[in-house]
Amino acid sequence: QQKYGCYLASAHAVGEPQTLRAIEAEARAKLSPEALNAAKAASAIMGMNNVYYRATHLVSNTTYTTLPARLRMNVIGNPGVEKADFELWSLAVSAINGCGMCLDAHEAELRKHGMTSEQIQAAIRIGAVVNAAARVLAAETALAVEPA
Q1: 41 is in which domain, residue-wise?
Q2: Nearest to residue 84, comparing CAs of 41, 114, 104?
Q3: What is the pLDDT of residues 77-113, one digit of tens each?
Q4: The CATH number of the domain where 71 resides is what?
Q5: How far apart are CA 147 and CA 76, in angstroms?
Q6: Which candidate in 102, 115, 124, 130 is catalytic?
Q7: Residue 6 catalytic?
Q8: Given 8, 39, 95, 99, which residue is catalytic?
Q9: Total of domains in the chain
């Protein structure tokens, strides 16, 4: 479940159609409906949180880090799967989206759940590979289309 959820959350994060369809088909055969929904939710919530927290971290004015986020994050508290699995999937998506604050937060949570460095690295690696495959497919699709 951890591996296929990582693949699915990563595919949803990159959003490239061929990658998404291929991984979604494989994940549907391996994951419960709850895990499928949770992996997609991890991608969705990180799509929001990664942008917000990366911005508050990167902007020079530190006031923004002290303001309440006021973002709906209910799924984090009750993802429908083991908390460690959801954190692992969120970590992979955060790696794709490049949010250092989120990576640190998810890595710390995963450590609390007993995850090893190798397990955490594997999730990051899955995110990296899915992202790379999606970029190649997107580029090939773009080159295959004749300009108007």
Answers
A1: 2-144
A2: 114
A3: 788 899 999 999 999 999 999 999 999 999 999 999 9
A4: 1.20.1290.10
A5: 43
A6: 102
A7: no
A8: 99
A9: 1
Q: Which of 104, 48, 112 is nearest to 76 (CA)?
A: 48
Q: Beta-carbon neighbour count of residue 40 at 10 Å?
A: 19
Q: Is residue 102 flagged as an active site residue?
A: yes
CB-based burial label for 87 (10 Å; 0-12, 13-18, 19+): buried
One-letter amino acid at 49 equals: N
The one-letter code for the residue type at 77 is: G
pTM of the model: 0.92
Alpha-helix runs per DSSP H in 15-62:
17-30, 33-58
> CB of 19 within 8 A of CB of 69?
no
Here the tokens at position 129 are 């590979």
Tokens 């929904």 correspond to what residue? 37
Q: Give me the pLDDT at residue 147, please.
A: 74
The mean pLDDT values, 10 residues at a time, for the chain of 148 residues are 98 98 98 97 95 94 92 80 96 97 97 98 99 98 84
